[in-house]
């Protein structure tokens, strides 16, 4: 079967793609991926919506990476967190490698003095066992917070680890820290946990929180129509679970050259089409 990227696209689509690649450094080498995406659209309205969303993406590039890391460093100093009394633990599951681990490595180069903090970074919550007696502060870290559900689950896991050490979680100051987060996700965390949440960059939902009621209804309906071009299942996962992004997050976030979370609209990362054909997606998602 011939690649979608080899198909001819119309002049209007061509100008759209040129405009996107001119405006966004991260998209400059993604002509094929953009052509694939535009080829899935049956109307100008669909293409206009995708272009609007792409223009609104927050991309964590090297410059933004430095900014959010520096802001977290300032936050630690503001909270008077000391390296000998603090652990920074990623939410990564044991045996996996995700964005939270990549982010933890970046923080290890940014939290100063770096040499004093080098033993404070913990890859997995379970690795805190046997290390908590002299600890006062625990920072739960993820590179991105979407719906907030993952953080709540990881907090519960941390509480079990602490309880198994015959300690009370009330003994610790718990902080949730992330490079970037959805505002609604932060709200859910605060409603469920008595913890402080800090994220240098907070994002609105890509459609629902950026449009009037009428436009919101029209654009959501349009996006659901576009999603019908995608396979109902992929990698044993139902598309319905990720429609509009996991937890209906409507996220417009991408960590350049790393990955995008499943909270992002699936049209940008779901690799299997309704025809069962695989195609090159605009964004890479590492599972």
UniProtKB/TrEMBL annotation:
In this protein, which residues make up the domain named PRTase-CE? Answer: 43-272
Q: What is this protein called?
A: PRTase-CE domain-containing protein
Family annotation (Pfam families): PRTase-CE
On the tree of life, the source organism's domain of life is Bacteria
Give the species this sequence originates from.
Photobacterium andalusiense
InterPro entries this protein is in?
PRTase-CE (IPR056920)
